[in-house]
Design a protein that fits this description.
heterodimer; A: mainly alpha; about 70% helix; globular; B: about 425 residues; alpha/beta; FAD/NAD(P)-binding domain; Alpha-Beta Plaits; five-stranded parallel β-sheet; 8 helices
């Protein structure tokens, strides 16, 4: 027996959902959603669970991850209850729920906490640089080491345990019976969604946004690969150098368009931006710009006289790797892919 | 050359000749007051005269409206201006209103017309019949509809080719293409606003496919299909003549919906849909009828029983608002909705879909009053200065309001409010 918990609604407001209480349960949102199906009908069911404060069922639900926020539901909602933004807020809430450290929730709910964390990381970078007496060679070498350690550390300590928790909440706790073979057979689904976000194409008129997002993901992963494993900043290979330029430019162009969309608010999906959305998209943009500029300065041989640029790049990188990746919006990349995988597991 | 406007004097000016305006005029006239009704269209009777039957008694609407309308038109104290535009109303002082009215020409001498319809037969022009809500065509020389009052032909001059065929066949020779608009100055001691409502236009909702899908019609079109004076004398899909056997009603099509610009309940759609469903079960005993609703609001006397009666007759009630209507190749429609009982997204096929369109305000009267402000409420209906204790009073003293001009109402409530408005007007006249 679950009990009504009105406090949950107040909690959810801190994650961005403010209007869902006006829902009168007509089901228009579900009926206009192009991703909703007879088996997985949403978003109204999630609005209802949020209204009654049924945390357990929400934590067990994969539906928030099955929504790719085209915004049709919000546009057509008779009560302007904004179900699209509710789904977005539930995703934020779930990311916080999956996070064993509890830091995600703290950062989502408090802009001040996020800013303090970002500033502390930036100070750390500067202090480290001062400690190394601003020796460019040492700093750049350490920066490269940091990238590798951060990736390994964040995955081992934060992300893998969190995905295990997601698995526990959505598969184990609700008592879903999944055979071992099913886990193996469904892996393809996981990889397809991780690298293509294919499902987003099911949204109405979403081809452009899907394509932008797709090349952003590919660009981001390539930049990561180029800087971390091909050592872009230290590389002599013309191929690596050009590749780095191209992907960082791609990241800049796409994220610039995303930022512009959030400023203009001309689409349902970009109308309601929470601080976590801004940080994610702006830091991604900064990563693209600063990486591009650092390599450019190296090629022009002026980095030695402009150490601040590399320090700025390193600060952005550290904030990204220590805050946004483990505790911010970045994790949607993993959770969405795993949600598609877990959803596939339970299809009979 | 425009002649000097004719000046006429009355006790009361009634704006709108629908059932509320007519009732108010009749009450005033029966108390000995001289009344003028200004009606925009060719006939009295408003929307009620177009209806099939009325809820919850299932009285034939035509059969109860027509006697009322003829009582109004034969009353010695009532003057009726149809096809007339009120352009302004000035309040010069208490009991002193001056209205400017333009009577548009019918191009037919009304007094001589016998409604023999020979002009209709002769006319070669066919256009959509607005009185049948575009289900069928009519001629450019035409009697508006069979129970119109006055039952007099008119020439639709915008579509007329001036071929003169009607003129040649008219037995009394009453067709007169030389008629011109005539201006009147009307003085009155009080005024009643009975300008009614507008129907929600569902072509604003692309998801409903109205106007694109051939077999999606409005509830008003269904009223015409069901009415005794109906165009086809049976229920059929006007697109292909098929007799439908799986009919869907989409409630709240343009009501209770912020996103469609009408946040309030229209108060009549549940009941008229239930009524039409019952009539359809009588007309097409083999047909399945499904009403998709958010909430059934059967709040009036005998309404809940009327709803239960429909359910008992086998009308299916499904809780869930229709989100999307798509047309199939054979003209049938697929309706997408969330079935609230199971919480699952579903699709259903129907061969005729009726959109239960809502009530929209008619804000035109606000612009008519020049010296004083006739205020509207936040929804653009005429504002009642004291909605609880004097519901017929407007923000102008001496101007009263009847019927759906103040908000959605069913027929009994419209008649009641007309009674209230006429009584208030009489009190004002005797002040």
């Amino acid at each position: 027996m679950s009990r009504i918990n009105p406090k949950f609604g107040k909690e959810l407001k801190k994650y961005g959902a403010t209007e869902f209480g006006s829902c009168y349960n007509c089901g228009t949102c579900t009926a206009v959603c192009s991703l909703s199906t007879g088996e997985d009908s949403f978003p109204r069911s999630m609005v209802r669970l949020s209204e009654t404060g049924n945390e357990e069922e929400i934590a067990a639900s994969l539906k928030p991850w099955l929504c790719y926020y085209c915004g049709e539901c919000s546009t057509n909602c008779p009560q302007t209850a904004n179900p699209g933004e509710l789904m977005m807020s539930l995703r934020r809430w779930l990311m916080a729920k999956y996070d064993w450290t509890g830091l995600s929730g703290y950062l989502y709910k408090s802009l001040t906490a996020t800013i303090i964390a970002m500033v502390l990381v930036a100070i750390g970078v500067v202090v480290f640089a001062a400690y190394e007496k601003f020796d460019m060679e040492v700093i750049m070498h350490s920066g490269h080491m940091f990238e590798m350690l951060a990736i390994a550390g964040v995955f081992a300590v934060i992300l893998i345990p969190n995905i295990a928790r997601m698995w526990y909440f959505t598969i184990i706790k609700p008592g879903k019976n999944v055979s071992f073979m099913k886990y193996i057979k469904s892996l393809g689904e996981f990889l397809i969604h991780m690298f293509t976000q294919k499902r987003a194409l099911g949204c109405d008129d979403n081809q452009k946004r899907w394509f932008e997002h797709f090349i952003l993901v590919i660009g981001y992963l390539t930049l990561l690969f180029t800087t971390v494993f091909l050592d872009w900043f230290g590389s002599e290979s013309i191929f690596v150098i050009v590749l780095g330029y191209v992907v960082s430019a791609v990241i800049f162009v796409v994220t610039f368009d995303f930022v512009l969309g959030r400023v203009k608010k001309n689409k349902e999906v970009s109308k309601h931006s929470q601080p976590s959305d801004w940080f994610f998209v702006i830091w991604l943009l900064l990563m693209g710009v600063t990486a591009f500029a650092v390599r450019l300065f190296i090629d022009l041989d002026i980095l030695e006289n402009n150490k601040w640029l590399y320090l700025f790049h390193l600060a952005v990188l550290a904030q990204w790797a220590l805050i946004i990746v483990p505790f911010g919006k970045w994790t949607h990349f993993l959770y969405r892919s795993f949600a598609m995988y877990f959803a596939k597991l339970t299809v009979v | 050359m425009q002649k000097e406007p004719t000046t006429l004097s009355f006790d009361a000016l009634v704006i709108g000749g629908g059932i509320a305006g007519g009732e108010a005029a009749l009450n005033l006239a029966s108390n000995g007051y001289k009344v003028i009704i200004i009606e925009k269209r060719l006939s009295l009777g408003g929307k009620m005269i177009m209806l099939s039957k009325v809820f919850p008694t299932l009285d034939c609407s035509a059969c109860i409206t027509t006697p009322k309308v003829s009582e109004i038109s034969r009353h010695p104290n009532i003057t009726i201006f149809t096809e007339s535009d009120l352009t302004s109303v000035e309040k010069r002082g208490e009991h002193d209103f001056v209205a400017k009215v333009t009577r548009r020409p019918r191009y037919v001498v009304a007094e001589d017309c016998t409604a023999c319809q020979l002009c209709e037969e002769a006319c070669p022009v066919i256009v959509k019949d607005q009185f049948q809500y575009n289900l069928v065509g009519r001629k450019a020389a035409y009697i508006p509809f069979s129970i119109a009052s006055p039952k007099v032909a008119a020439i639709d001059i915008e579509n007329c080719t001036l071929c003169g065929a009607c003129e040649k066949v008219c037995p009394p020779g009453c067709i007169d293409f030389t008629q011109e608009p005539r201006d009147y100055v009307i003085t009155a001691k009080t005024a009643i606003v009975a300008t009614g409502f507008k129907l929600y236009d569902p072509s604003n909702v692309p998801r409903y496919n109205y106007g694109e899908a051939k077999n999606v019609i409005t509830s008003m079109q269904m009223e015409r299909l069901l009415a005794p004076t109906r165009p086809f004398h049976t229920i059929l899909r006007s697109s292909d003549g098929k007799v439908p056997d799986k009919i869907a009603y989409v409630l709240c099509a343009g009501s209770r919906d912020d996103s469609l610009g009408n946040p309030i309940c229209s108060q009549i759609c549940c009941m008229y849909s239930i009524k039409q469903a019952q009539l359809l079960m009588g007309a097409l005993p083999m047909a399945d009828i499904t009403i998709y609703y958010i909430d059934i609001r059967a709040y009036g006397k005998g309404y809940e029983e009327f709803y239960e009666q429909a359910a008992g007759m086998g009308v299916r009630f499904v809780k869930g608002k229709i989100g999307r209507i798509s047309e199939k190749e054979n003209g049938n429609l697929t309706l997408r909705y969330e079935d609230l009982a199971s919480g699952k997204l579903k699709e259903a096929d129907h061969d005729l879909v009726v959109l239960s369109v809502g009530v929209k305000p008619n804000s035109e009267p606000a612009g008519l009053f020049t010296t004083h402000k006739l205020e509207l409420d936040s929804l653009q209906f005429v504002k009642q200065s004291d909605p609880l204790l004097s519901p017929a009073k407007t923000t102008i003293e001496g101007v009263f309001v009847a019927g759906t001009a103040t908000g959605p109402k069913d027929i009994p409530d419209s008649i009641l409010s007309a009674g209230s408005a006429s009584t208030e007007a009489i009190c004002y006249l005797n002040q």
